[in-house]
Design brief:
The chain has 639 residues and is of the alpha/beta class. It has 26 helices and 17 strands.
Length: 639
Amino acid sequence: MTNYLRTNMEALARANPDLARRLSLTQPAAVDLIETRSGALSIRLQNAGGRPFTLHSTIDPLAEARRMVETQLRENSNACLVYGFGLGYHMDELLKRMPENSSFLVIEPQISIFRKTLELRDLRHLFSHPGIFWAVGEKEPEVPAHFGELFRVISLEGVTVISHHPSVKLCGEYFLAVDELCRKWIIAVGGNFLTNVSAVRTYLSNTLDNINAIVDHPPIKKLFGRFRQVPGIVISAGPSLDRHMGLLRLLERHAVLICVDTTLGPLHRSGVRPHLVLAGDSSENNFRHLQGLGDTGAALVAEPMTHPRIVSEFVGDKFIMSFDEVLMKKLKVLLGDFGIVRAWGSISTGAFDLARCLGCDPIVFVGQDLSFTGGRYYAHGTYQELRWLRDLAYPRTLDDVHRWRMSKENDLDIADIYGQPGRTSKALEAYRHYFEREISQTAARVLNASEGGTGFQGVENVTLEEVLWRYARKEIPIRSIIARARTGRSKGQTSRLFDFLKITAEQLESVRDLCNRGFVTARAIHQKESIDTTADYHQMEEIYENIYNRKEVLTLLENANQGGLLTYQRGAEKLGGRPLDEKLIDEATALYGAFFVSFYQTAAMLKRRFEQAALSVGCKLSDSQSLETDKNERLLQAG
């Protein structure tokens, strides 16, 4: 077998001398080589627990790499964060599928495995690629330092995360930390690849619209750890949910029933009274799932970014959770820990994390098909299906609509938990991989009682009846425990919140004034009305610096104005290093002018929202003060 170490190291030394030096001091990992049927190598090593662990398929690693990239690569991607390298087959597949000018950051914590790979495969084409950057054997906080290389030449909206799942599973905690750092960094420079500008503004607006709910209702943190060793049933809207309604009714007194907003209607109409329902979507469409249901027996667990009508019109107890976004981080300092619930893409991922936070054990999936079981998209009775029924016209049937909706997905062939052929989508497959990663980091036992769909690697498939008899025979006063957590905010906390909202509105007004001054200066230069162009240009630079000195509101502004900030940064990158002459001043003036306009609009929008929120909280404080005064007067009269 050819040893490629020398030629690989020579190529790497030209591209990345520091990594080559560190690799020269590293011993290769002890691995077993596996010659697969396809002819491509696979390797087996021991994990931290001393158990054998295979990094690639033992049948066809190349086909495995193709499936992985097909599942995870988003359309219009122009850059990738690659979590885990292994033997690098997925990198070859990515190079085939992405544009020539694409960029990649390969993040591989196991430098000894990477060193062994240099012996086994010819990687010179990767080391000589100008768009591939390497973060190998580095500590988690060091990884974002490479973003300066990666993101100079790409649009952040086109970034895709590609996870080599065996590598991620082998180093789960590392990649969880790296993932969080990567996302925070991208948000900090103004381009959150998970969201768009309008979505971020909606999140902030909804949170401020829900400010009274934040004051009035307890944080979900009050329930964290209160259900240790109590089964938690995570209920999603997959087609298999239909068959479980009877047993879910029986489980109500024996397990914590946690459902997503999509499922509350079907559960309620079937006589199932879940204990908690999660809502975290900012769109009004998600309000339709809960509209008009009345008393369902459930307590709402809402992230304040959710649509305000979900919170205001819900009948029942309410708790506030946090996805730890920028505004909720600030409110946490004032009001205390809300309880962070981690969600990714689908609120069902948040329901699973909530079950972990509550202390539930085991955690049991129901309705989590992650595929189109029985040729259907959802369980019966969801808002989506009721809407389809309303619009149904002869001769089309409901099954036709389900098939039509499925045809809109990038669907894939799968085998379900019974080995039968089925279909799923790239999005659902991505959620499955996310769940598998999270499950591998979960101390509680995790079971899949969906009785349909794809299942999860390493998770036992059981029937819901088995769950009832094996784990849920003891009655638990679940609703009483939830009810005892009902508390509001203290007057002192509410007062601090009012001060924060009022002061933030004033600071945003200050930023708006600065932006207006900057725009007037830029316009004067652009229209040749400036008496001293160079002096006015430096004044623009000073105004820009003053805006960035408003640290109290800067993060809010950057998050709500990602598009404007990204446009400015791209333009500034092109102008960097050039001498100050008339042409540079003209180009930079146009760039600064656009920046001032976009930040002015953002600051004005946020100022209005914060003023309205301050008014709302101020009225609540005033009402509270009036009630306290009336109470004191009654006590005096009684005395």
